[in-house]
Automatic annotation (TrEMBL):
This is Enamine deaminase RidA (YjgF/YER057c/UK114 family). PANTHER family: PTHR47328, RUTC FAMILY PROTEIN YOAB (PTHR47328:SF1). CDD domains: YjgF_YER057c_UK114_like_2. Coiled coil: none annotated. Pfam families: Ribonuc_L-PSP. Gene3D superfamilies: RutC-like. It comes from Sinorhizobium kostiense.
């Protein structure tokens, strides 16, 4: 059984793990948390592009995305506007979006994905 791990974070987690043709990307949050939810979402999705590339895949192969928003009613539309500009129309994944009490007050969005690797 082959498991590839990328970008370990101490003894806690790997930011990306590939097993049996699926890349699992851990929940990502914005580095600059002074931005609004649209700015934070753009940062997270740019980071997602980097991590998917390390695993040998890209956003067109995302199978499932999980999105956590600090304020789902207020932030769902602005987050979606950034998401819709980022994801290819012919590669829409399944997705769940929920409100969550995130790890810090200034984290407005967190996103995790699973993507196919290879054909």
């Amino acid at each position: 059984m082959s498991i590839q791990r990328f970008e370990p974070n101490g003894k806690r987690l790997s930011h990306v793990l590939v097993h049996k043709g699926i890349a699992y990307v851990t929940g990502q949050v914005a580095a600059d948390r002074t931005q609004d939810v649209a700015g934070q979402t753009a940062q997270v999705l740019a980071r997602m592009d980097e991590l998917l590339a390390k695993a040998g895949t890209d956003k067109s192969k995302i199978l499932f995305a999980q999105v956590w928003l600090k304020h789902v009613v207020a932030d769902f539309a602005p987050m979606n506007a950034v998401w819709e500009n980022w994801i290819p129309e012919d590669a829409l994944p399944t997705r769940a979006t929920v409100e969550a009490n995130l790890a810090a007050e200034n984290i407005l969005v967190e996103i995790a994905v699973q993507a196919a690797v290879g054909d």
